[in-house]
Design brief:
The complex is a heterodimer of chains A (about 220) and B (about 325).
Chain A lengths: L1 E5 L3 H13 L3 E6 L5 H8 L3 E5 L9 H12 L5 E5 L4 H8 L6 E5 L6 H12 L3 E3 L1 H11 L10 H12 L3 H8 L3 H14 L8 H14 L2
Parallel strand pairs in A: 1-2, 1-3, 3-4, 4-5, 5-6
Chain B lengths: L4 H23 L6 H23 L4 H25 L8 H19 L4 H56 L4 H29 L2 H17 L5 E4 L8 H20 L6 E8 L2 E8 L13 H9 L4 E5 L6 E8 L6
Parallel strand pairs in B: 1-2
Antiparallel strand pairs in B: 2-3, 3-5, 4-5
Helix pairs in contact in B: 1-2, 2-3, 3-4, 5-6, 5-9, 7-8, 8-9
Classes of the chains: A alpha/beta (about 220), B alpha+beta (about 325).
Protein name (chain A): Response regulator
Keywords (chain A): DNA-binding, Phosphoprotein, Transcription, Transcription regulation
Pfam family, one (chain A): GerE
């Protein structure tokens, strides 16, 4: 799998290159600033890109802006954004086009190597990988506006995992329940929230995110 | 018997005056010359008393005025006495007395006249700056102490535990790899916790989203995390100093937090506009009201923090609501 990395801190950049190379990725470019990032993303068309939000020369949300610009030119171009902190507003901007293939994770998550590599693969496959912190903020903020109290505590847990972009199998493993039980919970969530049911994992996640983002 | 220091000189003068009288009586003189001795002694006493008065006045314009007045008070009786003792005749002291009175009158007028508006404005400004600088320095010191404590109790403690666990794991690597792996897990958890703590401290110093998106964007990002819907209108202009921008951000954030925590609000609103060279942010909520800077809800802290940037805070919060807090900070002068 071909991957582009954009990270200004040399130690972290090399760490991610080493980590992904060891897991069978081919690093086609490792950039240290955001100046050429959008062009490179469009030109090299990687299977996935891992991009730091804050990059030189401006040291603001350069990486995020480049990612959004590149995805405007190539819809669905898979990009995983890494950040020292997470903001709901950035997550919303990333998933706003509804095409999937986006991730937004705290840099800390890199330390859980297996979960991180799994997230990169998921994004490459058109799925989403949103940090649990974003999702918990999102659910916390929406509790007064959305009828989330219709859901049972277990269903809310499943919803939180689903919103992060996880598959039924992964949710089952995380909550120590069978995949079949997860399927029942998701079906119930979709009914209670009046969401269109879909067999496809990614579509299902996007529907949930659109629902959570929709009501302001 | 001890005489107070201030009484020594008068006592000596009285003794000398009496001595002169005794000498005159004993010598049976014709002309009453002791009056000149008394005159000299009296003049010296007055001069001493006036000199003391001048010395006790704080240095500056007032001391010069007192010295001027003392000169008048000293010379008038001296001249009149000399005129009296020297057989009167034409009242010659009139020239110097009138001149000195006019000079002294002018001096008094000059010192006592109301300071001009600019001067008054500057003096009020100095008062404000003195007060707010002390407030800013105090709150900055408190802030630094809080940061130090947060780092010490949080990130630092966790890094120590991380290092310790890595050390233990290293020593177990050969003998008990399974245990070493479990301990490395703990180390990773502690390192992640340290990162979380650092993130919290850093966000408290200067939120990244503020440098990314400016005040308007940062407040819009902030309201997404609130449990109540908050409408944000208007956009602050760019010419706001970074530190004032942070103070304004934390002020708005505190007001909204209060709305949720103390005001039991259902919804809130934030409006940015500019008026007469100042950025005005109005933060309102439909909660129970009753907020005040005296209420200990952090509004006082915000007021002090804003005051360091010549900012103001005004609360309107009748019981029953709504609460409207108006925050203002001056904008930087636009480059010409």
């Amino acid at each position: 799998m071909r991957v582009i990395i954009a990270e200004d801190l040399a130690l972290l950049r090399e760490g991610i290159v080493r980590l992904l190379s060891a897991h069978g990725f081919e690093v086609v470019a490792a950039l240290e600033d955001g100046a050429q990032l959008a062009d490179k993303l469009v030109e090299l068309r990687p299977d996935v890109a891992v991009v730091d939000v804050r990059l030189p020369p401006t040291f603001t949300d350069e990486g995020l802006q480049a990612a959004i610009a590149a995805r405007r030119r190539v819809p669905g171009l898979p990009i995983l954004i890494l950040s020292q902190y997470v903001e709901q507003i950035y997550a919303r901007e990333l998933v706003a086009d509804g095409t999937g293939g986006v991730g937004y994770l705290l840099k800390d998550r890199v330390s859980d190597v297996d979960a991180f590599v799994e997230a990169v693969r998921r994004v490459a496959g058109g799925g989403t990988a949103l940090d649990p912190t974003v999702i918990s903020k999102l659910l916390h903020a929406k509790q007064r506006v959305l009828p989330l109290d219709r859901l049972s505590p277990r269903e809310r847990e499943v919803l939180a995992h689903m919103a992060q972009g996880r598959s039924n199998a992964a949710i089952g493993a995380a909550l120590v329940i069978t995949e079949k039980a997860v399927g029942k919970h998701t079906a119930s969530i979709f009914t209670k929230l009046d969401l269109p049911v879909s067999e496809d994992d990614n579509r299902r996640v996007l529907a949930v995110l659109a629902y959570l983002n929709g009501a302001t | 018997m001890t005489l107070r220091r201030g009484l020594v000189v008068p006592a000596v003068a009285v003794v000398l005056a009496v001595a002169a009288l005794v000498v005159w009586t004993m010598t049976g003189g014709e002309e009453f010359w002791p009056r000149w001795v008394w005159f000299g002694l009296g003049a010296a006493l007055i001069a001493l008393a006036l000199a003391g008065r001048i010395r006790r006045t704080p240095a500056g314009r007032r001391r010069w005025l007192v010295a001027d007045g003392a000169l008048l008070v000293f010379l008038s009786p001296v001249e009149i006495t000399v005129w009296l003792l020297s057989g009167q005749g034409f009242f010659w002291p009139v020239y110097s007395l009138v001149t000195m009175s006019v000079v002294f009158g002018a001096h008094v007028w000059f010192v006592a006249r109301r300071p001009d508006p600019r001067e008054r404005e500057l003096s009020a400004r100095v008062d404000t700056l003195t007060r707010t600088r002390r407030g800013a320095v105090d709150s900055q010191a408190a802030e630094l102490r809080r940061i130090e404590r947060d780092l010490h109790d949080g990130a630092q403690a966790r890094m120590v535990s991380t290092a310790l666990n890595i050390g233990i794991a290293q020593s177990l690597l050969r003998t008990d790899p399974a245990q070493a792996s479990r301990i490395l897990d703990d180390a990773r958890t502690a390192a992640t916790g340290a990162l979380q703590d650092l993130r919290g401290v850093m966000q408290g110093i200067y939120p990244s989203v503020l440098s990314d998106r400016g005040l308007g964007g940062a407040v819009r990002a902030l309201v997404y995390d609130l449990v109540i819907p908050v409408r944000v209108d208007g956009d602050p202009p760019g010419n706001l100093p970074a530190a004032a921008q942070a103070a304004m951000y934390f002020a708005v954030s505190e007001c909204l937090a209060n709305a949720v925590k103390h005001g039991q609000a259902e919804r809130g609103w934030v409006e940015f506009r500019t008026a007469r060279g100042r950025l005005v942010a109005v933060v309102g909520d439909d909660g129970v009201g009753g907020a005040s800077t005296a209420g200990g809800t952090g509004l006082l802290g915000i007021t002090e923090r804003l005051a360091a940037f010549d900012g103001t805070l005004d609360v309107h919060s009748p019981a029953g609501g709504p609460t409207v807090v108006t925050l203002t900070v001056p904008l930087e002068d636009q480059p010409a």
